[in-house]
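Convert to structure. Protein one:
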Amino acid sequence: MASRQSPSLPVLYTTGTHYDVGYNTGVTFSNNIRQYVNSSKRICEKIKPYYDTQEGRELYDIFLKATEDSYPQYCRELRGISDGSGVPFEMLFLLNISPEVRRHLEREATPKVEADGCSDIFLNSPNLKLLVHNEDCSPLVKQYGYMLNTKIDDVEGKERFMAFCYPGILPGPAFAVNGDGMVITVDGLYPERVTLGAPPRYFVNRSLMRMTDIDSAKTLARNAGHGMAFGFCANISSIRNTEQSWALEIAPGHPNAGIQIHTIEEGTELNPNYYFRCNSYMHSTVEEEYDLCSTHRMLRAQELPAPKSLHDILNILGDTHHDLYPIFKTPRETDRGETVLTVSMNILNKTMNLYQGNPKYHSYPFMSLPLELYNEII
């Protein structure tokens, strides 16, 4: 199937239990999920063959048990996606533990060119509060990704959120907003070691759709009694508590994940507080793989003038100055990822603006969505 020639992003509105929402997602996007699974070299040539080995099956079983113990509702949701799409549950679960499997397979590999990476900018002043995010991942996600706008009512409680989803992967690893007005974008982090016996990162990402404030986000990310197997940073703002924003770094650990929080305080109108981050731990002491791409993106951002407006931010996130490791990504030998979307979260205006293609060359987004979700899906 050819790549899309113009911006396009399907949105599914659905309600029900975790299983219902998963099933409806699977039915609606069965072709997207199948095409993604069958087209991904990473899945077909590395992850699936590894699962077919004794070591790979043992790793799968370890993660499945840890996940069922910690997040049975999200396992039901994933089984719904499987039943709806016709893609075997085992394949979808492999997809949802792919960061841990890849890290396990790449223990001795260097340099690494398959680590998904994103870039984020916070800008915080009394009159302008922005969280802007480059979604960097497999180029296939541009073709097959989708938005999910959902309300869940199940035995574990209620959830309300809108999230960008990778095909066949639970909501949470990209960007989202929930019914409590909590806005989140996610940057993958890549520790040296995976913590076995703890649930995978994507399931912890999924759990953050339930956060009501920054304290509950920390509690959910810590996942007391179970922890987390890998790492990520949750960049968080609130449309109801707008003075501060937060970068929440989570490190692998069992029985609790490691937590370190950086607060982006409000600057002044003339000097907004500016914070750039990508895919390295900045506030935590964690042994991590050396990431040339993150290093060069961070250095380039420091060379550019501090932004004062959305236009300035889009110029930074659209920067292609470095030949091998630009901030705005297109696939190349040194980094096979692509910036498939840029999303601007305007906290005061309560809008989410989406850009496909380099945002520095687009005056207007191709899609605008509200950050304020209501109790009922209309």
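Protein two, convert as well:
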Amino acid sequence: MAACGALAAFAVAFLLASGVQPSKYSREANEGLADAGVKRRESGEFRVVKLNQVWEKAQRLHLSAVKLAELHSDLKIQEKDELSWKKLKAEGLDEDGEKEAKLRRNLNVIMTKYGMNGKKDSQLVDTNYIKDGAESDTLDDPRLEKLWSKAKTSGKFSAEELDKLWREFKHHKEKIHEYNILLETVSRTEDIHKNVINPSEENLVKEEILHNKHRELKEKLRSINQGFERLRKVSHQGYDTTSEFEEPRVIDLWDMAKSANFTEKELESFREELKHFEAKIEKHHHYQKQLEISHEKLKHIEGTGDKDHLNRNKEKYAMLEEKTKELGYKVKKHLQDLSSRISQGLQHNEL
């Protein structure tokens, strides 16, 4: 019951709270990527059957090229975790089933994120920032809308800075959506545990599991609150020209890292790693943009009947698609590793 109360408190606290640089990378060619993509599709995209089923379902939906590439990256992370869990299970190292339960929750988050859970309006905002102008979407939060309106009319931002700020607002909206998805999945899991718990030692194990889930929610909520405070400050004062980072996810990580239990040396090392991470994200966004452009061009050429031209552009599209997937996976894996390190530092603070 205490766990339920904590969960409700998080939900209330959430009501208090409410991205991507133009790339300077030139086009790169890697013909082997396209061939690898064709071979993988022929043998099944993933080594886990249910992930192949999710991927095949996504192929039938009207998702953008960039959204599909993003989904692919998420599923590759899920595949890695699924295969690691199978090895642990074979060694008898997941006796309480918590890692298996977390895998199910993560897959549910992915399904909801990309609108494949059977619910309407469940997809996150498209994160490619290519086709959508700053006025073509809403932020779904009156306080965010008010901040954005104030920033637009303040005269403190250039057109480029407004575009950058819009990406930060959209990133913040996505964080809220992801928090809500996690809150829902944890709540459902909690209900299941509540129905099967008996007065035994097993009860203590499950209480600890629920505590870990709530700690994850707390960390996400902390990030949301810090992010909103940053948006409020930037909207009123404009951008700080001395700011070290521009990518919203990197800014979030840096703010969280400064609150964690890191020594000065560790913090400096983390700062340097974030700079490399930001460059990796920028390169990924470059390929996302090129993929979207290639997709639009491909649709146009298909209507001309020029088969040679069409085949050449299909090859180019396949190469861009594979490179975007590859970089997307690397970015998300790196983000996962960095977030885990910060989480450990924050947990140490609470001890």
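The CA atoms of residues 134 and 346 lie 35 Å apart. The two ends are 23 Å apart (CA to CA).
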